[in-house]
Predict the 3D structure of the following.
Amino acid sequence: MTIWETMVLALGGPAILIAAMAFLAKSLLTQWFARELKAYEATLTSDVKAFEIKLKAQADSSAEQLKSELQRQASDHQIRFSRLHEKRAEVIAKAYQLLVEALWDMESFVSPVQFEGDKSLPEKYTVAYNKLADLYRYLDVHQLFLPASLCAALQEILNEMRGTVIQVGTYTRLDNDGLPDHVLQQKWEIQMKAWDKLKTSIPDARKALETELRALLGPVS
């Protein structure tokens, strides 16, 4: 019998052997769990880092897409605004041209001084009235491009001009020969009132209109 066998028998035989094996097994399991835990923690840390990197990449991509979309929308808005401004400037220029031409023809018609060789007053009336009609139709079609206040100002001056032209035109169709003196006097007074209006109230309205048009167009460099 060896010395180890003697010691085992002296200390309790198989019982101590089982206890030793149990201790050894526990120690081995503890070391295995520690290694597995360490490996799991390393894997978990690696997964978390990978997830963080993936999440950051997704966030960066989403932010870049959002930035790109906002830039696209801003560019589209700027293009639409520029086109609208160009169209509005075109409408303003055309409306003002028609207004000025109508004023010229109206002035020629209601002027108390008519030159030999000019068109007849009925012809001038037709020209002036048609020019006002052209302006009215143009504004009616393009009023969506202009502010409501500007449309109202244009409509006001247009009504003033149209009423004046029609009033003078009513008397123009009457032949002076054979007219009573009081009718001739009324005809002359109406024409002079129209001429005065053309030189006072209508220019004031035109000036206010020009101010609003310039403000709408913005500074001209």
User: Anything to note?
Assistant: Residues 33 and 39 are 10 Å apart (CA to CA). The radius of gyration is 49 Å. The chain has a mean pLDDT of 77. The first helix runs from residue 3 to 10.
